Each structure stands twice: as structure tokens, then as C-alpha cells.
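hey so i finaly got around to running the thing on Glutamate receptor ionotropic, NMDA 2B isoform X5 from Thrips palmi. pasting the sequence first so u can double check i didnt mess up the copy paste, my clipboard has been acting weird all day
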Amino acid sequence: MKKYNFTQANVHSSFMTLTPAPKAILNSLCKEFLSVNVSAILYLMNYEKYGRSTASAQYFLQLAGYLGIPVIAWNADNSGLERRASQSSLQLQLAPSLEHQTAAMLSILERYKWHQFSIVTSQIAGHDDFIQAVRERITEMQDRFKFTILNAVLYTKASDLVTLVNSESRVMLLYCTREEAIHILNHARELKITGENYVWVAAQSVIATGTPPTQFPVGMLGVHFDTSSTSLVTEITTAIKVYAYGVEDFVNDPRNANLSLNTKLSCEGAGLGDSRWETGDRFYKYLRNVSVENDMGKPNVEFTADGVLKAAELKIMNLRPGNNKQMMVWEEIGVWKSWEGEGLDIKDIVWPGNSHTPPQGVPEKFHLKITFLEEPPYVQLAPPDPVTVKCNMNRGVLCRVAREQDVAEMDQFSAHRNSSFYQCCSGFCIDLLEKFAEELGFTYELVRVEDGKWGTFENGRWNGLVADLINRKTDMVMTSLMINSEREGVVDFTVPFMETGIAIAVAKRTGIISPTAFLEPFDTASWMLVGVVAIQAATFTIFLFEWLSPAGFDMKVKVATANRCLEGVLSADGLVVLQVTPAANHRFSLFRTYWLVWAVLFQAAVHVDSPRGFTSKFMTNMWAMFAVVFLAIYTANLAAFMITREEFHEFTGVDDSRLSKPYSHKPMFKFGTTPYSHTDSTIKRYFVEMHAYMRNFNRTSVQEGIAAVNSGELDAFIYDGTVLDYLVAQDEDCRLLTVGSWYAKTGYGLAFSRNSKYVQMFNKRLLDFRENGDLERLRRYWMTGTCKPGKQEHKTSDPLALEQFLSAFLLLMSGVLLAAILLFFEHIYFKYIRVKCAKTDQGGCCALLSLSMGKSLTFRGAVFEAQDILRHHRCKDPICDTNLWKTRHELDLTRLRVLQLERSLDAHGIKPPARHINAPHAGVLMHHRDMTRNHVFTNEFGSRCYRPDEREVQEMETVL
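ok and heres what it spat out for the C-alpha cells, dont ask me to read them lol
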């Protein structure tokens, strides 16, 4: 190593106590340090009057940090202060830090398996840092050893220690000054928390130097490092080496060729020097990265990124009687070394109370009498093993279900073998009780409440579980006991371990298919879109295209032919002959278009008239494609809705009007609960009429109530929500369910007698179980279940009853009623409306709407229909039929003769004159007419109109 001469211009050492006044500290720093251009400050002292120099030391270190001057410190006290100040200063700490002290203290606890402890601090500087250091160390050790901090007490007065009395803590970590420790331990002795079962582990600030005070109890443990003058001189040498190595590394780095270690700082303002040494941060990094050789095989002196010593050594001290029995001495019993795996080497210890064995670190076991009332899944009963008279692992613990006087008359073995006296209790609460017993270290006796009631105020006194607590027959109640204001007025509850409320259980009933099931594959909007838009649009589009198409029903032809009238001529022999030629073959009306659209949509196998126009045919095919897609979607979803629906009473809650006012609904529902329960008392208080009504339907147990709902004896059963949820999940047929929202939400809690000392103890454990997830794990294990509908697979299927497909019959009945209504309107039309339409519809426009309507408005249609009937009529009598055939044959021969005469006259240029047919009795020879065509007729000879008078109409109608 190179030789350096360290003058005051390079490093300044201070061995004096700093003046408390901030102004004096600032003046001293400006005159004694900055004037000589120091590049580092060695801050070393073995002064152990903790707290007296706190402000001045903090101020001095912060000023050094603001100026950018590194500080190499070895401070016997206020390590917490340096830890906090190092966040804003360039400080290296050669003394063991608070992190080292807490690590050594926790190593003692780990050695003796003390998992839980409390922390007691005063308002000494760094007390927050001490607690934080303990928590950080616990986090680092949690993989190999689990610690629990029961209390963190900040001592300001004697009453602050009462928390330790009420807790189960038996190990305390103490961080304060020695003077403060005297008061703390003196009050602790008065509270009897310094005896042989209590261990106090003190930090360096408590041990300090000098004779231990008499108030300190025998067996105290502590951590300590040497603060003598000899040790201080040794640390000065180490500090100078750290500085020298840092200077060497800084100078030898080529990147620092243009940088100097002269600070050139001034407190006089601008122009006389800088206010901060910019190179200080850079130089501090070189100081922090040094590695200085150590003596006696110890690790080199190195620092962490925070400037804390990596390897530290602490002495483990034990307070024991000295040679003079009246004097106490701190004796070194071991060494803690941070660089070793175990880290702790301890000799024989004098334990509290001059005991030779270490305390357990936990309270001594205590015994509790615990009362319960069974209710799955919280507490459920099962008989013990008949051979071993013990409970299997999955059956919980042995509990007494008989009265105490009954069991007292029998020997214990015989009583345990009798299942009417002892059974196995298991469930959520039993597992939780086992966790409490393991954590708190107590034994218990589990006894069933004698009267089998939960605890309600009846006839001026309490009964059940609450009565046992009030009369102090038991120490604790552990079951699904709901917390309410009445019970809280007489007993103490812990925080809730499970939330609940009043719920309703109902059973699913085998229902019927919905009467509107055939409509349910589509919603209302979809049906409206199909019925109002799609069908109407397709119908009018096809009809319009057919109307406008030249190949279909051409409107121009229709108008021309509609105005033609019948013309008649007289034949040569005086016979009136009326010949007509068919008009355009009009077979497609609006109603027939509707018939076509509906038939295509539902693929009905009925006779329909197809349009003739190419455009209307194409539109018909497009509608058919739409119908294919529509029917495919409809039939695919129809099966899902044409199944049996499971129906149930969907109550909104206990305050549902059908329950709260039972007589307002007909028929009245049958529902109940269990008497003398929280649910029963709540309903009695807020729903008097409901409580009086349901009294006849109450069941003695929840299982009976659920069975009654399953069998149909009750429509609903009202009880605690979590219990009903569990029973619903356990139902094998999956027929049960809970409905509505919870009413009067509350929780389950552990109940104790008034002012019980165990309440806070169990409260803290419950909060710990909730925080670490133990309660949630228990809930998932016990509160979840699964119904087993698979057991029904092997049952034979029941045949479908009429109500299962009632919707089909409903559809048919609706069609019959609609047809009857249409028949009624048809009679109204023929009796009242047809005559008016016949007078106003001269152009046959009604035939566009419906061919049947158009035919009904004209007498020709009726006449020609009658002639068709006569023409195709066959007599049942063979003689009649023969005469009819003979007459028709003669008529045809006559027609041929007439035609021949007309042609002969026409060949000689003789044309017979036209004659009007006006004789009322003239015979009319009519050609056969297709009744499906438009009933408009013309003759072969001309275009003069023929309009028969009223007498002719009446005579022609007689043919019908």
C-alpha cells in the first residue's frame, strides 16, 4: 500500500461531544472543517448517554450530507439515528447497526423455539427503525422459522404495559435507554411479567456500561459490543484504513485524473467557494467499495449499498448474580457472528427466576369448558368407533351430549362407549377450535347444551347457550351462534368468523312446459320482425311483382277486360245464343299470395297457386330460402324450450309480502323455522303477524324443516343463510335452493361470559387466521358441497303427461277459436257487407284482394258455378242418367246444325241480322266457363254490352 500523510486538510477526526446548539455546530463545521478543505470526516465516539446528543448528532450528519462530505462513523449510541440520517448523508457505519442487533436478538428466539414475542420501546431516537428492522428480519427468516409479533408497545406510562399482561406474550424485546429500562422493568415487576415464565431480551442501548440496576430481573438477555476506549482506538485505525483505501482507489482510477480531493467549500456565500462538493458523491462510492483486512480471521471490513457493515459481531449477555449476591453483573455467554450460518454460540444461561431450564415462551396450558349445539356443517355429531371408543381422524373430537349428572354416575370408559353419552364432534367450528388450542395452548372439554336451545329471552329470562354463559356454567360457546344486539347485551362476542343472514330454502317442483314455449325460441322483437315486417314485405313484394309483370297479371289487360260486357245474338231459328271468350287467366290475388307465403314459410303440404311472372317467381324462391334458414334456427332452438321447466317459489326475502302478510295471498303458503333461534326471535320482533302464522309450521330442527320442504309439506323454510346454503349443496337430488336476499345480516362469533379474559386472546387469533387465509381454507373445505343428480340416471323415465305438451294443445285451441271468429265475420260479410260491395266495386277490384270475394260479388259467378254443377252432375238413377246423356247429345247436334246453316248463309253472302236478347224467357246457351278465371265475358260477334235487369238476375239465381 502507498504511504499517505493524512493532515487536517484531508481528514478530520473528532473525539469531542458536539455542542447541542445548531448555530454552534454550523460555526464549528465552517471554521474547523471547511476552512481546511476536508475530504472526509471521521465521526467516532464511545459516548453512551443515549438521547442527549441526538439532535446535535443528527444535525451534524445532515449538514455533512448537504455539503457532500463523506462521513466514516463509529458511534456507540443512537444507531437508529445514523440509519435514518444515512438516507440523506454519505455515511459509512463501522459499528454494528440496528439490523445486526435485531438479527442477533431473533437468533436467540430461534434457538429456543420462541415463535411469538412482543416489542417494548421508549421514545428513544430510532425506536421506529428498531421495529422496522425486526419486521424486515422476520420476513427474511420466514422460510425457515415463523415469528409472530403479538404486541408492539411504545412505553410512555405504566398503563402501557397492561397490554402485555392481557396478551399471551412471554418473550419481550426491549429497546430504550438504561434509565428508561429501569422504569419499564420496575413497572413490569409490579404487573408480574418479569417472573420465571417471562424472558426480556435487551438491545445495546439498555446494557450500556457500568453496574446493572437492581430493577433488572435475573436471567435477562441482551446483545452488546465493546465501547471501551481501547475498542475506540482500534476503530480509528480501521476508519483511517477505509479512508486510505478509498483515496488510493480514487487516485488510481484514470477517469478521475481531472478531479481533486480538495473541497474548496465556504460558508461565506458565492464567490468565496462552492456550497456543495460535487466530487463527494463520487468519492463516497470508492470509500463504500473498499475491503480492509481484519484481524484474527474475521471477514474483511466491507459495506453494503446503504453504508452498513456487512460482517458484524455481537456479544450475547446474560444478567446473573455476581460474587456478591446483592449485585448483578452482565456476563458474556456467547457470540453472534453475522457471517456464520448458525450465527449463535451460547454457553450456560441463568434463566429468569434462577431456573436452569429455558421458559417455554408461551403461556402455560389452561383448561376451558366449551358448550356447543350441533348444526352442520359447523358442528355435527357421529358415534365413536365401537372398538377403540375414539374418534377417527375425520370424525373430530369426543364430546359429551348427556347431562353432567347422568355421566357422573358412570365410570368414564363405560360412558365413552355409550353413544347416548359421548359422540364425536366434527365440522368447521371443531377444526377452528383445534387451531385455537394449538396456537394458544389450552385443553378443553366439549359439552352439549342441556336444553338444546340457542339462547333467546323468553318469559323474562335467557335460555340455551346464552343462559349457560350468563350463569357461568361454561367458559365459551363454540358453534354457529349468531351475533345480535340482545345477546351482545349480556355476553361478550369475538369478531365474526363467518358472515350470515336469514335466508329462505324452497324446493324445485316438476313443472310443465310453458304454454308459450313454441314462441320462446325468439324474443318479442324477433317475432315482430318476422310477422310484421318479413311476411308483409314478402307478400306485397310478390303480389306487386306479379301485378306489374307482363307475364303475370298485367294491369292494362285487366282494366281492358274488366270493362267488357256480355253480348248476345239471335240465331237463325230464333234461339238466343250467348258466346263468351275467357279474359286473361287471373288466378293470383292478395289473399292467395298470403296463402303462398305462409305455406312456404311453414312448409305446409297444401295446394297453392304459384305466380306466373319471372320476377315474382324469383322473389318466391328468395322467400323460400329465408324460410329454410328461419325454420332451421327455430327448430334447433325449439327443443331447448319444449322441455319440462323446474318451478319454485321465488320469494324476494323474508320481507316478501307473501310471507310477511301470509293471509293476503290465496292459497296461503306454508313456511316455518326452528323455535328459540335467532331467526325465530328476529321474525317475532319485526313481523308479528308472520310469526304468529308460521308457529303451526315450525320444526324442531333444521333437518326436519329441510325434509318437510323436500316432501312438499312446507313451501319454504326460513333459517340462517350459510346453513341453508350448505344443506342445499348436500342435497343428492339437487331439488333444493335458496331464494331471495339475506335479511338481518350479521355473523357467527365465539361467545364468552361478561368481561372474560379470553376474549382479546381469541380475537387476535381470529384476525390472524383471517389474514393468513386459515378461515378461508376451512370455509372451502366445510361449506362447499355438491348435489348428486347422477344418482337419478338409473331411474326409469316417466311418460309425458298431458301438461307436458300443453302448449301444442293451446296452439290448436287458439286456432279453433280464431277460425270461429273468422266464420262469424264471414256470415257478417255475406249478410250485410256483400251487397254494398257489389254496388261500389264495378271494376272487380275486390277480386284482386280475394278471388272468392270477387266471385261472391257477381251473379255471373254464381250462375256459371251452378252450370258447372249441372254439367258435371250425374244422376244416381241409370235411366235418368241415360235420358240426360241423350238430351245433351241432341243439344250438341243442334249446335252443329246451327253452325252449318250460318256458314251456308255466309257463303251465299247472306248475313243474318243481329238481334238483342231481351226476352225474359229466352233460352240461353252458354259455353263452359272456368270458374277460376276472372268472370268477365264477351261474345264472338261484337262488343255491345249486355246488362241484365233485376228480373233476369233473380231468374238466373234460381238456377242455384
